[in-house]
Design brief:
The complex is a heterodimer of chains A (556) and B (342).
Chain A (H helix, E strand, L loop, with lengths): L25 E2 L6 E4 L9 E2 L6 E2 L4 E4 L8 E2 L4 E10 L7 E9 L18 H10 L25 E5 L9 H8 L1 H15 L3 E7 L3 H13 L5 E6 L8 H9 L14 E5 H13 L5 E8 L5 E6 L4 H7 L6 E6 L6 E2 L13 E6 L17 H5 L6 H9 L3 H6 L10 H5 L6 H61 L6 H4 L1 H22 L10 H26 L4
Parallel strand pairs in A: 1-14, 9-10, 9-12, 10-11, 13-17
Antiparallel strand pairs in A: 2-8, 3-5, 4-7, 5-6, 7-8, 13-14, 15-16, 15-17
Chain B lengths: L12 H23 L2 H23 L4 H5 L3 H12 L6 H16 L12 H12 L7 E2 L11 H10 L8 H4 E2 L2 H10 L4 H4 L13 H17 L6 H20 L7 H5 L4 H8 L10 H21 L6 H18 L13
Antiparallel strand pairs in B: 1-2
Helix pairs in contact in B: 1-4, 1-11, 2-4, 2-5, 4-5, 4-6, 5-6, 6-16, 11-14, 12-14, 12-15, 15-16
Classes of the chains: A alpha/beta (556), B mainly alpha (342).
């Protein structure tokens, strides 16, 4: 039996998972349109590779990865590209982003799917395949997976698969593990090979006995070696990567250090599943499991194509009256969707329809009574009451001293606060304020450097000019002395002479400079180029004439 | 709700304070059992005063009255102060003490959550310094006094200062067990003799030791329901035990047992109800230990070597001063960071 470790704090909010985990994963009825954002992952936005009016097949790339850290976006079904424009996307900011609107043709016609046997493949090839298949972290971070599947000096010992799913209401990973355990484990094998990792630890919170059983059965059935399914205690935020790594391995990943440097890499179970589908079945990431719950008559999990508008999705779960809005993600860390028409994206694990009965409005915040319940539950061992104090006073230096940036924004502190203070919002405010000031400071630093350099340059040029002048003066003196040796004391006696010499020197200098800046590319032109220039000149002339005539004959 | 988390734990300030008051009930019940219902009069007086002053101060400070008056903090302060004052004290003593606690030591410092000193203990300190005589009207427990006052007699005395004909104040009140011990020790009587006096029970004062048990019971409920953490009671009582134990072992004839100090005066109510006030106490676990141990040590020193009958209130206030310093130096290690070298 493996000894599990603990992390500090944590809370036990009502899990509210049974509403949605009783039924199998359902397929959605294809919506009337799909609004697929091109930026669904960490890194550079994908570049649209189709035009309005194009007919695309299911699985066809419609957004190509751009740059090193990026991922592809695909057509979730066959249909016609209706628009490529800015649309409101599922992001707390409520800002718009470039989206491809696809009208499904209802045929759901696939592109040619290439299956691969990964055993014979180069690692670079596998990574490229994952990138082209748009596989990103489905736990919510949506970091391109190919970028995480490197092993520097084979230092990684453990691959952790995260099936903890600690947020209340969400059951998408639970159902995925119950129904598709074998594929998840196959994906884990590929990941293990890419990482040169030794063991695979699959952490699942002990409130999901069916998923644990299914995964254990699949491990035995697939004869996976050095792969262990571990039931971890149900405590929020036990599914945080650093928290889960701590519980499973005892390793406390230091601040500012990647877990890979400590020999551990962590993936969500959904990501492993997606990777396997892409490699073994040639199916890029087109859909994901989304829990639809809350104020709906039929809460359950759906396999949802990306871009499906949220209102059409919740309608299929039987939206109930009295819905006041939608949370994307869980109630602890999710956010309210800016519009019900936004499309489901790779980060959408759950949609909760809100109602006043399920989520009553918070009573007004009272002053902090320093009860430190927040500190008791903080998984990062912070003192939220102190951070709150400093944030409120805008004492950002002190807030950083008390390790504001170690806050993982899990919301456990806000959850327990008996004064109902929105602590996390204060911390987000402080963080953004500090970032803004940092940027301002950097900009000011750059401006100051530029200014100082300019001052230095002007000063230097002045000096050089003065030196040049002095040198010329000396030269002029010598020349004058040579030319009129008979005349006594010519320089002193004839200051106009030196002045003229100086002027002459300046004119010569100007001429030289003018010659130096003459355009060089007009020399050695081919006859064709000369002809072209002539043509352009003629065109210009004509335009000028036309403009002239327009001026002469004003509007009638 | 507009932002995550969209759910919150169903425990608010008002409920926390209410549970603390609930936990005071066993102690109060035993108080009534052993000393009669006069204490209920002071509790009522203090409560009414506290609510009135709280409302007036909120109005003056231009704050919403309703949400703050419902938070129960003023009521709790009132109860703690009333329990620290002799039940037979004149009515205005309770009113003045409570009014001062709520208006000056709470609201003038910024209201709930911002007061550096425990308001109830400030109220007590003001009274004991300003009205030392009235603060000695402690009731004798049932069966010990020469005369037993009826509830009406008690009421009459509290509001008008009149005793039934032929009854002197000395006949119905007594010095506290702590005070008596001090006086008797000055008369060079050994502890063993003094403890044989009728006002002493098994561990400490007759009756008052039972009230202390009541507060301990309430405190256990608070720890069990996680309204307070164990750190402060354990370290406070521990520090008293160790300090008293050292002196007692060194000279048992002149220094009372540690258990006597536990069950005398305000030690129990202080350990579970007064020092555990979150606003005026430290927030870190290590800080709580230091704070409580310091208060325990000071309580003993003031009791035994100081001029006041009990040391609890002054020990609390002295340690309240140190809270910002204690907090700053007891920050726990942050996840993923190395232990900070002090």
């Amino acid at each position: 039996m493996r000894t599990l470790h603990q992390f500090h704090g944590g809370v036990h909010p009502p899990t509210n998972k049974t509403q949605s985990n009783q039924k199998p994963i359902a397929q959605v009825v294809l919506p009337s349109k799909l609004v697929v954002p091109l930026h669904q992952h960490v890194g550079n936005s994908a570049r649209p590779s189709v035009k309005v009016g194009d007919h695309v097949l299911k699985g066809q790339i419609i957004g190509a990865p751009e740059g090193r850290l990026s991922s592809a976006v695909h057509a979730p079904t066959s249909g016609t590209v209706a628009a490529i424009d800015m649309q409101v996307v599922a992001h707390p900011s409520g800002l718009s982003d470039l989206c491809i609107t696809l009208i499904p043709d209802g045929k759901d016609e696939w592109i040619e799917r290439k299956t691969h046997d990964w055993h014979g493949m180069q690692h670079a090839e596998l990574r490229h395949l994952l990138r082209e298949a748009g596989v990103v972290g489905l736990g919510g971070a949506v970091f391109p997976s190919d970028m995480k599947l490197y092993s520097h000096q084979h230092k990684i010992k453990t691959l952790v698969l995260n099936g903890a799913e600690c947020e209340p209401y969400i059951t998408c990973d639970d159902l995925l593990m119950r129904e598709r355990a074998a594929d998840i484990l196959q994906g884990a094998e590929v990941m293990r090979a890419l990482l040169y990792a030794d063991e695979v630890l699959i952490g699942i919170e002990d409130n999901k006995p069916e998923a644990i059983a299914a995964m254990r059965a699949a491990v035995a059935e697939g004869k996976h070696e050095r792969m262990e399914v571990i039931a971890v205690p149900t405590v929020y935020p036990g599914g945080g990567a650093k928290q889960l790594i701590r519980v499973l391995t005892g390793i406390e990943v230091p601040t500012g250090v990647r877990s890979t440097d400590m020999g551990v890499q962590c993936f969500n179970v959904g990501t492993a599943y997606g990777a396997w589908r892409a490699i073994a079945h040639g199916e890029p990431l087109l859909s994901r499991i989304v829990t639809v719950t809350g104020n709906v008559g039929n809460p359950q999990n759906f396999e949802v194509p990306f871009g499906m508008p949220v209102d059409e999705l919740v309608a299929q779960a039987g939206l109930l009256p009295g819905t006041t809005g939608y949370i994307m993600g869980g109630p602890m860390m999710g956010f309210r969707l800016p519009s019900e028409q936004v499309g489901v994206i790779k980060a959408t694990n759950c949609i909760i329809a809100m109602s006043d009965a399920l989520f009553p409005p918070a009573p007004p915040a009272l002053p902090c009574i320093r009860c430190a319940r927040c500190a008791d539950v903080c998984p990062a061992d912070l003192q939220p009451q102190e951070l709150y104090w400093f944030s409120k006073a805008k004492n950002f230096g002190k807030a950083q001293e008390y390790h504001l940036f170690d806050c993982i924004e899990c919301g456990a502190c806000s959850y327990v606060c008996p004064s109902h203070i929105p602590l996390v919002q204060y911390f987000l405010f402080s963080k953004s304020e500090i970032h803004a000031r940092e940027q301002e400071k950097q900009a000011a630093d750059r401006a100051r450097e530029r200014f100082e350099y300019r001052e230095y340059r002007i000063e230097r040029e002045k000096q050089e000019k003065a030196e040049r002048l002095a040198a010329k003066e000396r030269a002029a003196k010598e020349q004058a002395a040579k030319q009129v040796p008979a005349v006594e004391a010519p320089v002193q006696a004839n200051p106009e002479n030196t002045l003229q010499l100086k002027i002459q020197a300046a004119i010569d200098h100007a001429k030289e400079q003018a010659a130096a800046v003459k355009p060089k590319n007009v020399e050695n032109l081919t006859p064709e180029q000369q002809a072209e220039i002539a043509e352009i000149e003629a065109r210009r002339e004509r335009i000028r004439e036309l403009a002239q005539s327009n001026v002469e004959t004003p509007k009638e | 709700m507009l932002f995550a988390p969209f759910i919150s734990k169903p425990l608010n300030v008002s409920q926390i304070m209410f549970r603390v008051m609930l936990a005071l009930i066993p102690g109060i019940a035993l108080y009534v059992w052993y000393f009669g219902p006069a204490i209920l009069v002071s509790l009522t007086l203090a409560s009414v005063t506290a609510l009135a002053v709280e409302a007036a101060m909120l109005k003056l400070r231009d704050r919403p009255v309703a949400p703050f008056i419902k938070d129960n903090t003023a009521l709790l302060t009132a109860w703690l102060l009333a329990l620290s004052i002799p039940p037979l004290a004149p009515w205005w003593l309770v009113v003045v003490g409570t009014a001062f606690a709520i208006s000056v030591s709470k609201h003038l410092y910024g209201g709930m959550g911002n007061n550096p000193f425990n308001p109830a203990m400030i109220g007590y300190a003001v009274l004991i310094i300003s009205f030392p005589v009235q603060m000695t009207h402690w009731l004798t427990p049932h069966g010990l006094g020469q005369v037993e006052l009826t509830f009406l007699d008690q009421l009459n005395f509290i509001f008008s200062g009149m005793l039934p004909p032929g009854v002197t104040l000395d006949a119905v009140t007594m010095a506290t067990p702590l005070d008596t011990l001090k006086t008797q020790l000055h008369l060079d009587r050994p502890i063993q003799d003094i403890m044989g006096m009728p006002i002493y029970g098994r561990l400490a004062g007759q009756g008052s030791e039972m009230v202390a048990w009541g507060f301990m019971l309430g405190g256990a409920y608070l720890i069990a329901t996680r309204i307070i953490s164990w750190h402060i009671p354990v370290f406070y009582l521990g520090a008293i035990f160790v300090t008293a134990g050292i002196f007692h072992l060194a000279d048992p004839a002149h220094y009372a047992t540690p258990l006597f100090h536990w069950f005398s005066g305000a030690a129990m109510i202080g350990a579970f109800f007064i020092l555990t006030d979150p606003v005026t106490g430290p927030t870190t676990p290590r800080g709580k230990m230091i704070f409580a141990a310091g208060a325990g040590f000071l309580t003993y020193i003031i009791r035994v070597f100081g001029g006041f009958p009990d040391g609890m209130a002054f020990a609390t206030l002295l340690m309240n001063i140190c809270v910002p310093l204690i907090d700053a130096y007891t920050q726990p290690k942050v996840f993923g960071r190395k232990e900070k070298k002090a």
